[in-house]
């Protein structure tokens, strides 16, 4: 057990609290019988020291238990969060396309925080209160088995209504966590699309949508409060019945001199003390249903297994050839690619054109193994890509998309992402991407910190940083999925020249958005409805491919 030492110390602390609580009740007997009734001065002089000792034991135990259980709880939650984030990062791309980012964030933050509350507070409190109940129950039975019987037979009657409340609490906890995740998703969507919202002046519309989600969170949290608030009254009513019966019967025992006044008050004190932890445990049990649901939601994610798994063979050579052999890809029941076959060799530049949804992005997604084909094979240097380790495959392929990803880090770290920083290589990559000129003008150069999403750069500058990141890898395959769309014509021409000079070192695959980017390509693949309907050079396609002729007019 990883926390054996901390757990043992915490248990010792809990036992100290339980013994201190029972001991403080027992002191009442000596105060009444020996000090007030028997006038024992020696006991009177000793009593302050006994009280100090009992409460020092109780206080020290409380501190030790709180510290070590909190350490265990916080460390467990830290590891859970680490494992969950790492586990989710290995899930298939289809997972991230079907589950909203806000939902994922809610589960990693809100749900795990609820679990943290249980581990750091509820569980130790339940254990400590359980020890206290055992100590006090043993003491009241020792003092008067007859009186203890009446109390201990009435209190279990509370189990039935409390169990019903716990079921309701679990139901509302589930709805509360689901609505919280939806609300978090809505917040993420609002601030991710803030430019669209502001440019259309739709703040009021979005506010109304958010208010609806926020109202649902409020509704279910209030239901939880309502259910939880019933726990104390039920325990109060049943407790009053039990204590009333005990006081009546105990009073008769004292009147008939079968029990001393001190013994009865010690018993009554212990009984009142016993009532408090029982009430606390019943309330904690209700509240723990919140964490039970959060735990179930967390393990739903942890139990997911990716279908895109790493192979065992290392790709330790540069990629010289890629073959698609009768490759088909389905998204659910929709055909994205149908029976695609093509050979690509090092030094070739391949361009992909076609209408939106024709299959271009699906083609490049297969290359980086975001998906695996439903049928057919993709061979890398003659080896099926499924047999290769994902890490070695991705080290040879650089993928630059129209959607640019910039990390909240320095320019150097963004360019050398995933690899050790070599300043000369960073500068060389920036130079090839025609980004060095603007980077050198920044106060800290390559050590300049970029804000979230690179918002302190222009769109064209972000694209050049992303291109520099791709070139830093010195890849065997460079995929440009509309990666120069935000560049001005001059920058695009310069980058095209830079790529032309690197052409012999790699296979270049370009998803085109402008005719100028593909005119010099060795082969242009024309996609339509998931199929390659034409393939040839720009000049030949203009003469013999009707589909390309239509697209050429759009791309001009």
What's the overall average pLDDT, rounded? 82
Structural class: alpha/beta
Compressed to H and E, one letter per element, the order equals HHHHHHHHHHEEEHEEHEHHHHEHEEEHH
In DSSP terms (H or I, runs of 4 or more residues), the helix count works out at: 19
Total strand count, please? 10
Query: Which residues form runs of ≥5 with pLDDT under 50?
Result: none
How much of the sequence lies in strands comes to 5-15%
Helix residue percentage: 55-70%
* Main β sheet profile: 6 strands, mixed
Shape: elongated
Largest sheet, order of strands side by side?
Answer: 6-7-8-3-9-10
- Give the radius of gyration: 35 Å
Distance between the termini: 67 Å
Could you characterize the architecture of this molecule?
The protein contains 19 helices and ten strands. With 556 residues, the chain is α/β, with parallel strands linked by helices. The strands form two sheets. It has a six-stranded mixed sheet with strand order 6-7-8-3-9-10, sandwiched between helices. The protein has a four-stranded antiparallel sheet with strand order 2-1-4-5, with helices on one face. The longest helix has 49 residues, at 41-89.
Task: Describe the protein's topology.
Blueprint: H1 4-37, H2 41-89, H3 93-98, H4 101-143, H5 145-154, H6 159-192, H7 194-199, H8 203-229, H9 231-255, H10 261-302, E1 321-331, E2 334-345, E3 349-354, H11 360-367, E4 375-380, E5 383-384, H12 390-396, E6 397-401, H13 411-415, H14 423-432, H15 436-440, H16 459-472, E7 477-481, H17 489-502, E8 507-511, E9 523-528, E10 531-536, H18 538-544, H19 546-555
Parallel strand pairs: 3-8, 3-9, 6-7, 7-8
Antiparallel strand pairs: 1-2, 1-4, 4-5, 9-10
Helix pairs in contact: 1-2, 1-4, 1-10, 2-4, 4-5, 4-6, 4-10, 5-9, 6-8, 6-10, 9-10, 14-16, 18-19
């Amino acid at each position: 057990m990883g926390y054996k030492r901390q757990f043992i110390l915490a248990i010792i602390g809990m036992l100290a609290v339980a013994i201190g609580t029972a001991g403080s009740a027992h002191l009442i007997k000596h105060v009444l019988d020996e000090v007030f009734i028997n006038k024992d001065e020696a006991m009177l002089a000793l009593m302050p020291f006994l009280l100090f000792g009992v409460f020092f034991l109780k206080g020290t135990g409380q501190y030790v238990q709180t510290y070590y259980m909190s350490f265990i709880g916080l460390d467990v939650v830290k590891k859970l969060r680490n494992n969950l984030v790492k586990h989710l990062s290995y899930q298939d791309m289809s997972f991230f396309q079907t589950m909203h980012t806000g939902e994922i964030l809610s589960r990693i933050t809100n749900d795990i925080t609820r679990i943290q509350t249980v581990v750091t507070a509820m569980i130790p409190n339940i254990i400590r209160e359980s020890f206290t109940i055992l100590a006090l129950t043993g003491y009241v039975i020792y003092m008067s088995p007859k009186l203890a019987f009446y109390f201990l037979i009435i209190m279990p009657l509370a189990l039935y209504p409390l169990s019903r409340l716990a079921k309701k609490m679990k139901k509302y906890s589930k709805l509360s966590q689901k609505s919280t995740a939806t609300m978090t998703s809505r917040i993420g969507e609002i601030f991710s699309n803030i430019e669209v919202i502001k440019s259309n002046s739709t703040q009021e519309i979005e506010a109304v949508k958010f208010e609806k989600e926020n109202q649902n969170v409020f509704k279910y949290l209030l239901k939880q409060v309502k259910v939880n608030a019933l726990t104390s009254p039920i325990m109060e009513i049943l407790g009053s019945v039990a204590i009333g019966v005990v006081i009546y019967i105990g009073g008769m025992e004292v009147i008939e001199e079968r029990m001393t006044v001190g013994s009865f008050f010690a018993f009554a004190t212990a009984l009142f003390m016993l009532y408090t932890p029982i009430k606390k445990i019943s309330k904690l049990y209700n509240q723990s249903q919140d964490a039970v649901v959060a735990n179930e939601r967390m393990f739903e994610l942890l139990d997911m297994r990716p279908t895109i798994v790493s192979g065992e063979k290392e790709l330790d050579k540069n990629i010289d050839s890629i073959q698609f052999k009768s490759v088909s890809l389905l998204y659910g029941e929709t055909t994205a690619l149908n029976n695609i076959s093509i050979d690509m060799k090092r030094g070739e530049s391949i361009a992909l054109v076609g209408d939106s949804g024709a299959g271009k992005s699906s083609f490049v997604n297969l290359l980086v193994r975001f998906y695996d084909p439903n049928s057919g094979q993709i061979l890398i240097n003659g080896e099926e890509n499924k047999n290769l380790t994902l890490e070695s495959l991705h080290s040879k392929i650089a993928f630059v998309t129209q959607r640019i990803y910039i990390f909240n880090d320095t320019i150097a770290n963004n360019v050398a992402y995933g690899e050790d920083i070599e300043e000369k290589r960073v500068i060389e990559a920036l130079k090839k991407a025609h980004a060095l000129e603007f980077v050198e003008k920044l106060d800290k150069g390559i050590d300049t910190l970029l804000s979230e999403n690179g918002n302190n750069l222009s769109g064209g500058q972000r694209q050049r940083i992303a291109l520099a990141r791709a070139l830093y890898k010195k890849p065997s395959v460079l995929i440009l999925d509309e990666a120069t769309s935000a560049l001005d014509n001059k920058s695009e021409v310069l980058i095209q020249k830079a790529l032309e000079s690197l052409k012999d070192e790699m296979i270049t695959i370009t998803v085109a958005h402008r005719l100028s980017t593909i005119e010099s390509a060795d082969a242009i693949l024309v996609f339509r409805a998931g199929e390659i309907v034409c393939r040839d050079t720009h000049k030949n396609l203009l003469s013999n491919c009707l589909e390309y002729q239509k697209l050429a007019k759009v791309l001009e």
